[in-house]
Amino acid sequence: MTHFSSDDPLPSRYWRDLTASEIGALDRDRAILILPLAAIEQHGPHLPLSVDADLNAGILARALERLPASLCALALPMVEVGKSNEHQGFPGTLTLTAGTLIRQVTEIAESAARAGFRKFVLFNSHGGQPQVMDIVAVDLRARLGALAITANWFDFGLPTEIPPELQAEMPEGLFPEEELIHGIHGGAVETSMMLHLEPQKVRLDRLGDFPSRLIDLERTHPLVAKAGFAWMTQDLHYSGAVGNAALADARKGRLIVEHAAARLVELLHEIDTLPADLLKE
Length: 281
Fold this sequence. Notes:
Elements: H1 20-24, E1 32-37, H2 51-66, E2 73-75, H3 98-114, E3 119-124, H4 130-144, E4 147-152, H5 164-167, H6 177-182, H7 188-197, E5 209-210, H8 213-220, H9 222-227, H10 233-236, E6 243-244, H11 250-272
């Protein structure tokens, strides 16, 4: 079997770019397959429908660039349309039911498993479907004996170290605490990342502050706000965005993307060194 090595690297880290013989020559006991999961959904008046797909692709591309040739990891084709029915009140949103998404992701993994692959990372960039991915991961373990790990880029946290040249402009960190808690959709974080990755797609003349209704509920109904409720996006803000996009900065976006990519690389290294007897029969 062919192993990744600095002397004989594959021509691409993307599954779709390889030939059948190149896939077949991989060390399938060691290879880690990354399945990117995103969404095509509204992100307010200033961002395109492609935000989740763009952020996923940008983080993943940067992570793959950082990987040593000796680490056998490949990106499967992205599942761009996800479960986005919380955004269906706005034109442009495409959504699958949870059951359809479960079947789609499962059958992609099953296709790879038939070729002998047993390590999967479900790399998700849409906040509306982590629970769906958890269901898929357990099912892959139970039925296929696969190692299945779910990873959401937004669970990697944000960078805490600010470069010296930016510290004067960011004395309190990247963004205010309230924005980090409530800016969940098209706010400062996602808009900053888009300004870094896909600046031509950002409608700069439509940037604004789109405060979440949850900010008021925390004061008036704190137990409800803490427990949470099933919301549609318009319940949080009529625009479809939630957060202060006016705080966005491409330099901050670059820091966030680099941090998320570094954490994904760390995760892949850990998976690569897991004990062979981790999963029991």
